[in-house]
Amino acid sequence: MKHDFETDVKNQMYKNKDEISSLIPYLYRGVPYALDLNADPLLRAYIASAITAYQERNNNVLFADILSSINLSDLSDQKSRSQFEIARYIIVEGAYTTSQVMINYNKWNFDKEEKSLARHLFTLSMGRLHTSFKAAASFLNSGFFVEVVPVFRLILEQLAWGSYLLEETDETKILKNKVQSDIKHLKTVLNNEKFGQLYGYLSSEAHLEPSAIQKYLDINTEEKSIEIIDRSGKKSKEDTTSLALLLEAFNKVVWEGMNRFGFQKVDKQYFEDWHDSHMLLTKSLKCVFNGTAIFNRAD
């Protein structure tokens, strides 16, 4: 049976149904809540009205009156979500698609009697990796720029582990492998030194080394004060570019894995179409980050 990637996308085969990572936290009249990134402005108005009606319940204020007084343009997509929040949503969708494509590749391209330990472990780790992208996006949406770094490092180490499995076939060595030593294999697969530099940076940040601590401080020289930064939307924007870089690496490692383990002729075009679409996705993200393009929608 011949499969068509574009048709499967249109039929939402690769639609991420678990959208917890797309929840955006808000604070209205002192009440915290969260809504999906793609929530309709009218739903935002209903939530705001419900909060106001509850707080004003002793003043005989009616929900309908509050709702009718709200200007929906004040709760529009443009005012309620940022380009970086949309980017994180799209990155998670891209990571989910990559994982599911890897699983389908495994089902469609190999006999059930295939005994390659390296392939099985590669498929397992790459098929699960999208969950780490969801966790990272959730942290960033909440402004937790410190806590997201270990998740970034986890993603990079899993990609390094996958890269190792593309080179090693000895099962004894595979079972004794230490993932922390696999980064050199990732650099070989990606052929790009920036990923090795990213690993060093993330290791320093994850361990809160002295050279990294200043990042978490807000130093006001005029008032001669120092405050600890718990959450930061600005720094989360900066970390979103790192998440996009990890998605690019994820796509490349999976693509190398497919080429390493081989295609059935009937399905090769399918996976080439997936690869081309995700190359375009990463280019689009870079354009948004450098300000030469914007996302109009998240879905």
Total strands: the figure is 4
Whole-angstrom Rg: 23 Å
Structural class, from secondary structure content? mainly alpha
Poorly predicted ranges (pLDDT <50, ≥5 residues)?
Answer: none
The quaternary organization reads as single chain
Task: Sum up the overall morphology in one term.
Answer: globular
Bin the helical content.
55-70%
Mean pLDDT score? 88
Beta fraction of the residues?
5-15%
Order of helices and strands: HEEHHHHHHHHHHHEEHH
Taking the sheet with the most strands, its summary is: 2 strands, antiparallel
- End-to-end span in angstroms? 29 Å
| Tally of alpha and pi helices | 14
Within the largest sheet, what's the order of strands?
1-2
Q: How would you describe this structure in keywords?
A:
14 helices; 299 residues; globular; single chain; mainly alpha; two-stranded antiparallel sheet; two-stranded antiparallel ribbon
What does this structure look like?
With 299 residues, the protein is mainly alpha-helical. The protein contains 14 helices and four strands. The strands form two sheets. The protein has a two-stranded antiparallel ribbon. A two-stranded antiparallel sheet has the order 3-4. Strand 3 and strand 4 (225-228) form a beta hairpin. Helix 5 (83-109) runs parallel beside helix 13 (233-261) and helix 10 (183-190) runs antiparallel to helix 11 (193-206). The longest helix has 29 residues, at 233-261. The relative contact order is 0.13. The model has no long low-confidence stretch (mean pLDDT 88).
